[in-house]
Predict the structure.
Amino acid sequence: MSTVTFGITPGYGEKLHKAFGYSGAVRVGDRVETSGQAGVDDNLNIPDSLEDEIIQAFDNVERTLATVGATWKDVIHVNSYHKVAPGDDAIGDDHNTVMAEQFRRRLDGRAPIWTETGVTVLGLPAMRVEVRVTAIVGSGTEPHLQ
């Protein structure tokens, strides 16, 4: 039987756990799943700029992965949710450019699979992005395609 470990991110994650009763991450053996991570600070404030919000969401994924012994280099799958206006037919380059920059910055050449979804609402009214990942601990040290 695999060991199951739940992780709660210090700061904002503790607040959300207390308010809603969920964990930020779960590790089963070497596999890690995170809940969606918003671009919020520890007081649940969202930056004014979209770029800063996306960077904060990536920082929060990193913090959440660390609660169960994983890093961005272990990530194999990313799901991102992007707020779009009703009727929009695509997620804008303003989102995509920052997402791609963060992948390059944090993944050291690794290219996980990515599912990007446009939504009309997220967990907090001011949120514009949420990122969740799947990771396999230790897989970041294995050879990868470039």
